[in-house]
Amino acid sequence: MDRNRCHSVKLNDGHFMPVLGLGTYASDDTPKSKAGGGTKVAIDVGYRHIDAAYAYQNEKEVGEAIREKIADGTVKREDIFYTTKLWPTFFRPELVQSALEISLKKLQLDYVDLFIMHAPCAMKPGEEILPTDESGKIILDTVDIRDTWEALEKCKDLGLAKSIGVSNFNHKQLEMILNKPGLKYKPVCNQVECHPYLNQSKLLEFCKSKDIVLVAYSALGSNRDPKWVDSDSPFLLEEPVLKAIAKKHNRSPAQVALRYQLQRGVVVLAKSFCDKRLKENIQVFDFELTPEDMKAIDGLNRNFRYARFQFVANHPNYPFSEEY
């Protein structure tokens, strides 16, 4: 049994996903080379799950890092679980496969392990990440997410993606896919913002009941990119409750926040390109939070979102108007 298999969860399609992943999103002012360097260090220290996206615009660098680590014998391709995401400007069914092929070409890989819809709100098709009109308003598009889902199913059938899933969907949008006539594959996961200030307990229960894995992004709070996040947002890792629990276990608040998710059955993404923190964040398998610790962290929930996706707030599919 390889070490990473025991730190993995079995998805509803039979594939395995490592329960701790590296997030590769970085703000525009971060050099793209940082994502490549961080990915290499992450693989060296033991990460096998790399979470990326077309919209992060650094897949070329991340792909180079993965291929370099395969070439030097550190890992084989099948050891790596790579996720990319379908940006909402490619939601029209006829664009889906070509969008994935753009990512594969940048990565120089034959397939991705997971291909997910980045958010349920379609935007005007095209190369622009945020298509705007003359007045600077986002140009939305109307596409039935079930039609987009069918195109993802085709990508799985073609072997371009081993597994398919969604991100930023609420439970009603998940239901829409699950209840779709002729559904061929269920989403294996729903990747959402999830941390002690937004613990998503209702969505987590819903996903568990449907055999869908909840994957947590912004699990350590957020990198506060002004493009997406308000500057007055709270600093999660400064939270006194987390600091006290961390001190008790002789750990960092980040390690406690990650461990909290693992113990709830959530797959968790940790974003860092800093060597020290990359090493620290993966050291979460050799300690356990007590039931009291878990309850105290549960008590921090205040349904606070760092990433509110305000730019699509007018979209009929805007996911965050629902309670969960």
Automatic annotation (TrEMBL):
The keyword Oxidoreductase applies. Signal peptide: none annotated. Gene3D superfamilies: NADP-dependent oxidoreductase domain (3.20.20.100). The record marks K85 as: Lowers pKa of active site Tyr. GO terms for biological process: alcohol metabolic process; hormone metabolic process; monocarboxylic acid metabolic process; steroid metabolic process. GO terms for molecular function: oxidoreductase activity. Pfam families: Aldo_ket_red. Substrate binds at H118. The active site is at Y56. Transmembrane segments: none annotated. Residues 20-301 form the NADP-dependent oxidoreductase domain. Keywords: NADP, Oxidoreductase. InterPro entries: AKR (IPR020471), AKR1C (IPR044482), Aldo/ket_reductase_CS (IPR018170), NAD(P)_OxRdtase_dom_sf (IPR036812), NADP_OxRdtase_dom (IPR023210). It comes from the Eukaryota. Belongs to the aldo/keto reductase family. This is Aldo-keto reductase family 1 member C8. The gene is AKR1C8.
